[in-house]
Amino acid sequence: MKKLAFLALVTAALGGLSLASVSQEAHAKAQCNGTTKPCPLQKWMRDNVGTPMASGDLLAAAKGIEKIQTFGGPAMKDWTVLAKKTVDDAKANRTDDVKADCKACHDAYRDAYKNNATLRNRKIP
Questions:
Q1: Using CA of residue 72, residue 74, residue 75, residue 80, what is the dihedral sign?
Q2: What is the CB neighbour count within 10 angstroms for residue 91?
Q3: How far is CA 20 from the centre of its chain?
Q4: What's the chain's Rg over C-alpha atoms?
């Protein structure tokens, strides 16, 4: 009887490990990777800021940036300040300043974003 109970316990434990690995695998597949599966902010920025910028529509780019001004996480303390400056420059039709603002934000937060899976997979508000 003790052997049967031990066998049941081992089987349950192995089954639990198997389920845990399946769950981890499913979770990993659901995660963005920035290349074949763009992250929510990455895709959103391309569609709502990158595309308007490429066509010279700075007002549309400003509207896009306004929507995500508060998106930055704790590791991105100046996100809101940089976003506001970018919006102001876009509304003033200062293309070179907007490009510089975007570069400054990317340079400041690229690593924090890449190293934070929760932030990378966060849905756009």
A1: positive
A2: 15
A3: 25
A4: 22
Query: What DSSP string describes 37-87?
Result: S--HHHHHHIIIIIHHHHTT-HHHHHHHHHHTTT---TT-TTHHHHHHHHH
What are the backbone dihedrals phi and psi of residue 53, each rounded to the nearest 5 degrees, phi first?
Answer: -65, -45
pLDDT digits (tens, 9 = 90+) for 110-121: 998 888 888 889
Q: What is the pTM of this model?
A: 0.71
**What is the number of alpha carbons within 13 Å of residue 34 lying toward its C-beta?**
9
| Cα dihedral sign, 42-97-101-103 | positive
User: Position 57: which residue type?
Assistant: D
15 and 7 Cβ atoms separated by less than 8 Å = no
Query: What single-letter amino acid sits at 41?
Result: L
Neighbours of 57 (CB within 10 A): 14
2-16 residue pLDDT tens? 555 555 544 555 555
